[in-house]
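[audit] Reproducing an earlier prediction to check determinism. Same input, same settings, fresh worker. If the tokens differ from the archived copy the diff job will pick it up downstream; this log only records the rerun itself.
[audit] input (247 residues):
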Amino acid sequence: MVQVSRRPGVTGSALIRLLTRLTEHGVPESKQAFAERLSQWLRWTDAISLSSALNSPPATARTGARAASASAEERECARVRSALTKAITEGTAFSVDDFAPYRQRYIARQQAMEAGIAPLRGRLRTVLAARSPAMARLASVDAVMEQALDPHEQRLLATVPSLLDKYFKRLRQAHQATQAHETDEAAQAVAGDAQAADGPGKQTSSPVQTQPAAWLDAFGKDMQGVLLAELDIRFQPVEGLLEALRT
């Protein structure tokens, strides 16, 4: 089994740390401040929209709107997250040494996360907007940020399957090398037994057979961990809105 690197000092999200561990290339620490890096993702039109959301007078909460309880929204968020987690953790491994089914599964889980989390985020904004003028402003800011940052987030997350593909090929190559080495050792042992035998009827040992499912199972667990870390990333805006709702 190939040994993945464990580079000390890697900071950032769990997803970044895990991908750094599984790939051969480290992630250099950015020398830019967070606000400076964020500004590179915002177009001038996004900046105008964000400024308007921040500086405009708080909208008045809708008259007669029923304030949904935070516990009800928390239950719905927990239900969605539980369903997405269950879909990730069930049936990750395949019995073939081709990455194609893993890629299809990863992309399908990404699509499921998008389909489940986006409506949830919009629902929380609606609930917040009905709470108070200040919460309505927060909901407006979140809507602007989602529109501005979501394309960049999707573009970056779309590269994860390709990184996993490279890791998959490294594991497969290491398995094949180990298998070839063990087969060669077994062949040498058989040849030695044959030379030591007194007659042709001597029983000899069979070549050692490795179990290909072991490395595939390891990869499946690693991919599962990456998906769960991605789920954490995607759920962060929802958690932020929930925290505002609790107050």
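[audit] rerun output stored. Observation attached for the diff report: DSSP finds eight helices and no strands in the chain.
[audit] end
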